[in-house]
Structure formats: C-alpha cells, structure tokens
Amino acid sequence: MLVRDPIEELKSTKVFSHLALQSPEYADRAVHFVQTIAPILETTIQHFPLYTRHDAHHGFQVVRRLEDVLQIGCLKIGASKSLGYPELFLLIAASYAHDLGMTVFPDEEPTLRAMLGLPTDGWKTSVPLTDYLRREHSKRGGSYIHENALAMGVPENLVAPLDWIMKSHNLSVSELEVNLRKPFAADGRVLDVRQLAAILCSADAIEFSDTRVLDGVVDLARQTSGNAAAISFRENRKHDCIRDSLAVADDGQVVVSGTFDDGDVLALAHRTFDDMEGWIRGYCDIDRQSKVPRLKIRPEPFVRRLDLPGATFERLGVRMSKRAVIDLIASSAVWKRSTGAPIRELVQNAVEACRFRRHHSSPADDYQPQIRIEFDRARHRVTVSDNGCGMSLRTILNHFLSVASSRAKEPAYATKSYAPIARFGTGFWSVFTIATKADIRSLAFEDGNAKGIGLNFEVSLNELKDYTVFRDWPMNPGTSVTLSLSEDIAIDDAFEQCRNLLVSAAVPIDLVLDGRVDAIPATVPGITATQLLGPKMITMEADGLHVFEWQGERQGVDVAIGLVYRLEGQNVTFRLNEHTSVMSRLVRTSGTYTTAVCGFFAPLRPSTICIDLWRVGNAVANIYSPQGMEYSLDRGQILESEQSIKMGRVITQCIHDGYRTFLKELGAYDPASIYRLTVESELSGGNVFDQYTGRELSVAAEDYPDLLCFRLYEVNPSGRLQEANVLHLDWSGLRKLSGSCVVAQTTLSFPAPDGQFIGFYPEQLTELAYSAAAMIKRQQGSSEPLYLLEANRRASMLFDADPTSMVQTVALPIGPGGSNVHLLMQRWRLQNLTLDPDEHQIIAQVQGRWAGALYSRNFESSLGVPYIFLGRSRVIIRSGSKLHVHCSALVEQKRLIKLAELVDDLQLHSQGFASEAVRALV
Fold first, then answer.
1. Separation CA 455–CA 696 (nearest Å)
2. CB pairs under 8 A, 24+ apart, for 628-634?
3. How far apart are CA 214 and CA 477, in angstroms?
4. DSSP code of 587?
C-alpha cells in the first residue's frame, strides 16, 4: 500500500463515510482535525528515528482496523448497533491523536529546553527529552488538544472524552474500567466512552500493515549500537515479517501469519500476540458489559502460522527468572506496604522454631522458649532472636535461602502430632520491603542446649549474589535476624504495626523499644471499656453505660468479649436512647471480631452469631493450632477450608457462652428479651435480610437454639396489629407451632397526591403487612393459624428453609384516591421447614455483575413476568418457566458468570430496559 495524502486516506475509510452520511459538519471537523495534527505527527520521527511509524498514516491504518474489530451493524445507517456521529468523530480523532504527545509541539522547544536542561546539539534525540516524551505522552496529547480545541475543530464537550480515549491505550483494563465507569453524554445521548476506548485499543493492537515500518529504519537500527537500538531492530523486524498478514475473520477470529529468519524476532512476535490476546480478552469483557455490544473481534487465542524456514521453533512452557521471582515475593505488591507484616513473618519463624524445639524436647531438658524483638532506634535496626531449634547449613541452603521451599513441606517435619505454622517458604523475603540488609546468625539445637559454633551470613537484595559466605559464630542454639531498615521506615510505625499483629503469644514474646519491655500476653487479653469507648468514656456515666467483660475457652480456642449496654429500670438495653444504639459510642466498629492463629492476627470469616456483636461490642479469639489452616500469601487472610469453617464455628459457640452469661446475669435470658436485644443490636444498618441465609438456620438450631428467638403476631382477619396476640418463642418453641407465616421484606413506594412519592422501608411496613396478612387470612378461609413476622434476618432464615415457600401480591387500597398499592408478601408453612440447604430449592448462588441467590418457586405476579426480585440479592424464578429452564441449563454448564449477567439484565428489564435476549425468556 502506498502512503497517500492524509485527507485522501481518511476519506477512503468506511468509518469516515458513515460519519459523513450522519453529519457533514462532524465529517468536516474530522478532516480539519487530521489536517491540523498531521504535520505535528510527521515530526515524531525526529525524536524517535528507530521507532515504527507513528504519523498520520498510522492513524489511518488504525481507522481501517476499526472496520475489522467492529460488528457490521456499527457502520450501517439505521442499524440498532450503529455508532452515532459523536462516537465516530471520537474514534477517528483518537485513532490519529493517541500518540500525539510523542513529539514536540509547535513553539514548545524553548519551554522543554529550559525545563529539561536539553543540550544545544542533538537535543531532539537526547535521553532527557525522549524519556520525558515517552513517560508523559498520554497526558501531553490531551492537554494540547484541550488548549487548541477551537483551532483543531474539536467541540469543547468532546475534549474530555477524547482525552480519555487517547489515554486508554496506556491504561490496564482494570484502570480503564475504574476511570471510565461513569459515562459521558453528547448529542442528547449517553456516550459509553469506556466501550469506545476498548474499540480503539483493539484496533490499535492489531495494527499490523505493510507500511508500519519506515523505509531505512531496519538498516539504521542494525547499524546503531546499544540495547535500545537492538530492541528497535527486533520490533521493526517483527512488523516486517508480519506486514499486513493479520486478519479478523467474519466470525471475529484473529488469524496471523508470517515468515521469520531470526528466532529472537519470532519469539518476540509470539510474546506480542500473547499480550494482545490478554488485552483483547479484557476489551471484549468491557464491551460485553456495555448496553449495546459492538466488538466483532473474539476473545480467543489467535490462529498463528509463524514459520522459521529451515529450523524447528518450539516455545518453552515455563520460564522463571530467579531475580524476578525474588523481587516479586519481596515486593509491596504482595505485602501491601505493611511495615509490621515483614517483622511478623520473622516472629512467626521464631515461634515456629520454639514450638518445634519444645515438641521435640523432653521434660528433663527443662526447655524454656523465649523470643525477643528489639527495636534499636539509634542504629535504625530491628532484631528478632529466639532460642528455638535453629538452622543447620542444609536447612539454610535448602529452605531459608530457597524461595518457596518451606521446611514444613518435609515429611519428617510436619507430623500428626505437630502442625507447623510455616506454609509457603516466602515469608523471610518480605523483610526487603522495609530493610536493605538482613544479618542472620543460627545454631541448630540438635547438639543440645550447650553453646556452640553457629553460622553467620548476610542477605541483601541490592546485591543479590549467586553465592553465600558463612562465617563461624559462637552462640547458643537458636536464630537471630537483624534487619537494617530502609531510611524511609519509621521505627515507631514498625513497632506499632508489629504489636497490632500480635494478639497473644504461643511462647513468651517480649517487644523492646527504648528499653521498655512489652510482654505479649499468653492468652487473648480482655476487652475493656477503654478499648470499646476510647475518649468517649468521659460520657460513660452521663450516658448510663456499662461494659460487660467475659473470657472463656472451648476446644482449642480462647475468646474474650466485651458488650456495651444500658439499664432502663430493671431491663438491659443496647439503645443509647429512643433513636440511637450504643454503637454511636463505640470507638471502632470494624465489621468483624479479631481472630488469631497461634497468637498472630489472621482475619477469619465468622460463623453465624445471634447478635450484631460489633455494633454493641467486640470480641477477640485465638486458635491454638494452625492444623488445617490455609492462608493468603501475605497471611493477611485465612482462606476458607473445612478446618477454618469448623474453628470459626467453635469461636462463635464460645462467644455465645459469654453472651448467655451476660443475659443470665442481667435477667434477660427469656425469648422476649433475647429477641428485643437482637433487634437493638441490628440498629443503624445491621439488619441485612435480603440475602440467602444458607446454613444459618441449621447452625443456629444446633448451636444456639435458645438464642434464636422470634416475635410472631397472630393474625386476626378482623383485627388490627395493636390488638394482635404476640408470641415470643425460641427455636424449640417455634418447632412446636403449626401454621403459616408471612413477612414483607421489599420496599413499598407509591405516588402521593402532591406529585411526590411515599416510600416505606421493609422495617416500616409491619402495620401495613398485618393488614395484608389479614386480607390473606380472610381470602383463604382456613382455620390454620397465620402469623406475621417483622422484616429481619430471622424471617429470611425461615422463608429460605421452606422449599415450598411462595410470594404473593396483596392489593391494599392506600394509594391516591383509594387506589390499590401492591405489597409483596413472602409466605411459608412452619411444618415444611428443613434444615438441609440442599433441599431449599436454590437454583444457584452467583457473583458477577449481579451477586446473590436465585430461588425456584411458584408464584403469581401482577406484572405477568416469571421473576420477582426480593431486595438486592434475591430473585425468585417461577418453576417450570422458560426462564427457569434457561437458568438451570446455565448452572449445569457451570456458566455462573453468564447467569449473573442474565439476572443483571432482568433487573434492567424490571426497570423497563429490556434486551432482545431477555424478552425472549420472559
């Protein structure tokens, strides 16, 4: 292909023709824009003479590639997917201008010379200038257009979206999603700039053409010395060998072929296409999230035919760089910039060493484990020392200095009677996120308790050597690691963060700073009023607040809880006053209690607790043994496993032991008081009931049936809520009851006479729900009792546990002029409750664009659709419907992400925005 006049090239494209048909004005703007920037782009080669083409012809080739990546209807007048003239203008402008910042703008030379200190001779290709242009080019292009929008023909309202689309090729897919989540608008329509960016990036990625390499560049790069020239040579040769032999088939499959004479260039081509496949997968994901998907290109591996005549080229499956792996393991990306976590890793190693030595010592040895963590402010160092098992030379070489080779994996180390804390063999390397050097001294205890000759060596990432020098060091058995901290690490922060990660001590641990010794307690510390209320303690007496403290243990855990409460007469309450809970006085509401394993802080997903504990107090728990526990790499989270679920349940059982003591001591151990306190603990946003409750009822029935309490209003068809007989029952009492129950758990809103809307949250609907229940009772004409429950999670547990539960709509004449307002009522029979979640008739639980559970139920809808949403995270699908069959098929195919997308589309359908696919199902 010959390089022609930029405007002649632009006008030859289908994208421009489609724009001209829609808006001659914007077509003229596009022409003027290209005329303006083409001379500027021509100068890019002056600064990057070894690069592939980045001029206006490259922009033309990207516009041509837009035709390849887009579905046919996008460039067809009247088609549902047709792009409007603002979108077309933006795509054309961004295709030409996305690399605009890679050159020096007119009249910018003096400013850059002064700012960058550029030399007089050779300034155009000087390192300071080219580094600056490469680093800042995505910002520079948009800024230049913003300053010259009028002269360039860019409407002011399109400057910002154009800037973002231009920047997009330098953003990761996740950055693109975050920064462009909110749409723009133009021409009275919503502009999905995120989708436009994905379209542009897809076209730019596949821009391989027979004109991409400038004449003479390959020879120039070959003759130029230096690593940069070598990289440019291979990059240009890659394009030379492919040229325009990359195509997008009618079905969206990318096909690429080429003939190579250099294995390095061929390998580079494969790596490039590996990257491109990943990018396009991300761009296609963004496109699929758009209201109108437009990309034709498929997120699948390319069909590659890349030949190296006269040789056989095979790609290796796995390659690893020792330096890169260590840099990754020792990076803040893994350890999340915590100054305490790396020290905790050393302390964990020390605790492990002491536990192991204690396990293998006899009583006659009189072994007394001890760990000391000393923060040396003067020398800016931290030393962690222990008198544990120490390390032999073999252990140091095979495990300590070998990444991801944990000693805990040795069959002889972990036994049925000993569970190690160690997991990954990576913890030591975390220290280099806060330290420049580690000095290690160690003597194995195999030779007894006597002082001996240990080993001393250093490790530093600044000088990662392929050898280690070991020197003799007289010492007692154990290990000492001294970290020389980086200059930017504040030793007080390191001390505080390390202390916060140590909940209790499996072996004696002393922290030392400025001569002050802080001994970590052997068991979890009690939760005091000071911890719960902090500076708000000054109002404790005036508020009439009290704190209940309790500590206990059970089956391998010890737990402490603290509760803040008031007394109103003889009654205990979690209310501060009529409108506010004691939560407003707590200094911290973390959302979960503190858990630890072997004394080290490790967040664990809690089992079901009968109250919202962290809204009225807190708890601390320590699991004695790490047996069966699995962690995230940075040990910042315990991963869910059979053992973690079991221990989480034991912790909550212990918490309930303490709560029962609280209730009994304060005379509140009865169903009515327990129910009231549970509700009070959920004030201020804690009452989350629009979720599938799963095993919660089963766990509650087994672990705390006495604390699972309900309030039931017996429905009188001719009575009012205030006159209803009220029952307060625990689980055992409820199981003796027969009849049906109803609850209203969806928001109700309807027009008011003044043109406004009246809205009720589910918690406010009890009186209206009782009226609706009375209507149901009159209509059914049955003598079977009917009970109304308040909208809370206990009601959800019962609704979920009846596989035959249903939803019915009740028309209440409370709208304007006595018009009907429809209230959704959930109904179930007490005789049908099952504690087995496998019998709950749940189609699936999904995470994705929508997250929640799909229920299979029979119901009648006033809207005539086969689904009903019960809040944010529950949707009922009518059994036997076409929609139900489709959802079940997706589950069988394990396409849960697709199912989540479908439910999200159903939400749009319920709001009046229906896709063709959804209409076919409903």
1. 54
2. 628/419, 629/597, 629/602, 630/423, 631/423, 631/602, 633/334, 633/424, 633/426, 634/334, 634/335, 634/336, 634/341, 634/430
3. 68
4. S
- Distance (Å, whole) CA 876 – CA 604: 31
- Tell which phi-psi region holds residue 36, choosing left (phi > 0), alpha (psi between -120 and 50) or beta: alpha
| Per-residue pLDDT tens over the stretch 394-439 | 678 767 776 655 555 554 455 555 666 655 556 677 888 888 889 9
DSSP string, 356-372: HHHHT--GGG-----EE
3-state secondary structure of 80: coil
Secondary structure class of 639 (helix, strand, coil): strand
DSSP percent split of the chain into helix, strand, coil, nearest 5: 45, 20, 35
786, containing H or E segment: strand 786-789
Long-range contacts of 550-556 (CB under 8 A, 24+ apart): 550/658, 550/661, 550/662, 551/523, 551/524, 551/526, 551/658, 552/654, 552/657, 552/658, 553/654, 554/650, 554/653, 554/654, 554/657, 555/650, 556/623, 556/624, 556/625, 556/647, 556/650
For residues 856, 857, 861 and 864, what is the CA-based torsion angle, rounded to 10 degrees?
50
Question: For residues 369 and 385, is the Cβ–Cβ distance under 8 A?
Answer: no
Distance of alpha carbon 570 from alpha carbon 560, whole angstroms:
26
Phi, psi of 223 (to 5 degrees): -85, -10
- Report if pTM > 0.85: no
Residue 600's nearest CA partner among 633, 628, 636 is 636
Strands 435-443 and 452-459: antiparallel
275 - beta bridge partners?
none
Tell me which residue has tokens 């394009």.
239
pLDDT, tens only, 806-829: 999 988 888 777 778 888 999 999
Q: Where are the alpha helices (DSSP H) in 538-670?
A: 540-543, 613-616, 642-665
Backbone phi, psi, residue 211, to 5°: -115, 10
Q: Which strand (E) or helix (H) includes residue 443?
A: strand 435-443
Residue 511 forms beta bridges with which residues?
373, 518
The C-alpha angle with vertex 847 and arms to 845 and 849, in degrees rounded to 5, equals 125
- Local structure of 818: helix, strand or coil: helix
The H or E element containing residue 285 is helix 263-289
| Helices and strands counted in the chain (H then E) | 32, 33
Report the chain's mean pLDDT, rounded to a whole number. 88
For 864, the token pair is 């005539």
**Tokens standing for residue 785:** 């009792």
Q: How far apart are CA 347 and CA 539, in angstroms?
A: 40
Q: Which of 748, 744, 740, 736 is nearest to 705 (CA)?
A: 736
**CA–CA gap between residue 209 and residue 192 (Å, rounded):** 29
**3-state class of 853 per DSSP?**
strand
Please identify which residue in the block is written with the tokens 């719960």.
Answer: 532
Q: Do 35 and 71 form a contact (C-beta atoms < 8 A)? A: no
What is the number of residues in the chain? 922
